[in-house]
Amino acid sequence: MILASLVTEPVGVAHYLIVGAVLFIAGIVCMATKRNLLGVLMGVELVLNGANVNFIAIGSPYLRGDAASVGLDGQLMALFVIVLAAAEAAVALAIALNFYNTVHTIDVDAADQLRG
Amino acid sequence: MIWHSVLFTLFAAIACGFAMAVVFTSNVVRMAFYLVISLSATSGLFFLAGADFVGAMQLMIYVGGTLVLLIFGVMLTAQQRFVQMRPSRSEVLLAGLLGAALLVLLASAAVGVPTWRGSGPKAAALDEPPLTATPIALGLLGFRVDGDPDDGQNRAGYLLPFEIISVHLLVVLVGAAYLARTRLTAGSLAQQPPGGFEQDAAEDRIAEVEAIAADSPGTEGPPT
């Protein structure tokens, strides 16, 4: 099994990518199965965080060496992702509060007023 | 070298384990707490990968800002005794199957590239600890100091995306404040259910206004 060989070899980009994949999948499953709107938001945060792990790993000179490194592009992209996640959280929380004030519940299944 | 592996394993296990805990718990307060731990461990992974500035920003913005925002959201939308909303079992099963399939796909893609396989921290990078705050700040201002110009590695600066994201953040925050504001009008105050202190204050204001309106005709002309 190719995953078992990861345990023995020293830490590289692949290890970070596995961690990022696990965070991403946790976020996806969280978004799919939570019925609380704030739970869905936390799933989005996990997904963006997994993407950030990938950016940092690909751009790290520690893990790839100076020759194959992409410089600071990965870290700059990760900073942009963090800022966008903060903006997304602010707007989504405002929408969640409006939703709660309108239908008096935070269950996303209650948002079916546009259903034909 | 050995500490690098040990710390990586520790932070990776904490991050992945508490991310899974976020998925499997149904109490939204516990979800927020587990998310704090997972994001903090992820910032530890960033420090291990040599991204000290991004790790600090992760701690400050994500753990310090976004999670506080989420916890305020949990408090503002709290229902009576935190009703637990569970999805149906078929939905959970389907989501778990799809997630496992996607995880296998991503993991096989991650280990399938030979240049991404680990050979430990590179010796060239271990000589001087790279401090990334100043190069990142210069990159955001449009100057790149990390590339080697002799190799033709002139890299583009990030001044325009930085400005765009600044204006975007301003617009988003103004919009969020506009969306989340409380709409206080005379009609909505009068129709509020009794019990809130806004109701009493509104009644006092209405009584005041009515008293002034009732007094005003008498005080208009001079007393005869």
UniProtKB/TrEMBL annotation, chain A:
Listed EC numbers: 7.1.1.-
Compartments, as annotated in UniProt: Cell membrane; Membrane
Reactions accelerated catalytically: a quinone + NADH + 5 H(+)(in) = a quinol + NAD(+) + 4 H(+)(out)
Membrane-spanning ranges: 12-30, 37-58, 78-100
Keyword Transmembrane helix annotated: yes
This protein's record includes keyword Lipid metabolism: no
Pfam families: Oxidored_q2
Record's keyword terms, sorted: Cell membrane, Membrane, NAD, Oxidoreductase, Quinone, Translocase, Transmembrane, Transmembrane helix, Transport, Ubiquinone
GO biological process: ATP synthesis coupled electron transport
Molecular-function GO term, any one: NADH dehydrogenase (quinone) (non-electrogenic) activity
EC class name: translocase
GO cellular component, one term: plasma membrane
Membrane topology: Multi-pass membrane protein
Assembly and interaction partners: NDH-1 is composed of 14 different subunits. Subunits NuoA, H, J, K, L, M, N constitute the membrane sector of the complex.
PANTHER family per UniProt: NADH-UBIQUINONE OXIDOREDUCTASE CHAIN 4L, NADH-UBIQUINONE OXIDOREDUCTASE SUBUNIT ND4L
HAMAP family: NDH1_NuoK (MF_01456)
Function according to Swiss-Prot or TrEMBL: NDH-1 shuttles electrons from NADH, via FMN and iron-sulfur (Fe-S) centers, to quinones in the respiratory chain. The immediate electron acceptor for the enzyme in this species is believed to be ubiquinone. Couples the redox reaction to proton translocation (for every two electrons transferred, four hydrogen ions are translocated across the cytoplasmic membrane), and thus conserves the redox energy in a proton gradient.
Family: Belongs to the complex I subunit 4L family.
Name under which the protein is recorded: NADH-quinone oxidoreductase subunit K
Organism, as annotated: Botrimarina colliarenosi
Upper classification of the organism: Bacteria, Pseudomonadati, Planctomycetota, Planctomycetia, Pirellulales
Gene name of the record: nuoK
TrEMBL record, chain B:
UniProtKB keywords: Cell membrane, Membrane, NAD, Oxidoreductase, Quinone, Transmembrane, Transmembrane helix
Main location (coarse class): membrane
Catalytic activity: a quinone + NADH + 5 H(+)(in) = a quinol + NAD(+) + 4 H(+)(out)
EC number(s) per entry: 7.1.1.-
Compartmental location: Cell membrane
Membrane topology: Multi-pass membrane protein
Molecular function terms from GO: NADH dehydrogenase (ubiquinone) activity; oxidoreductase activity; quinone binding
Annotated protein name in UniProt: NADH-quinone oxidoreductase subunit J
Native species: Botrimarina colliarenosi
Gene this chain is encoded by: nuoJ
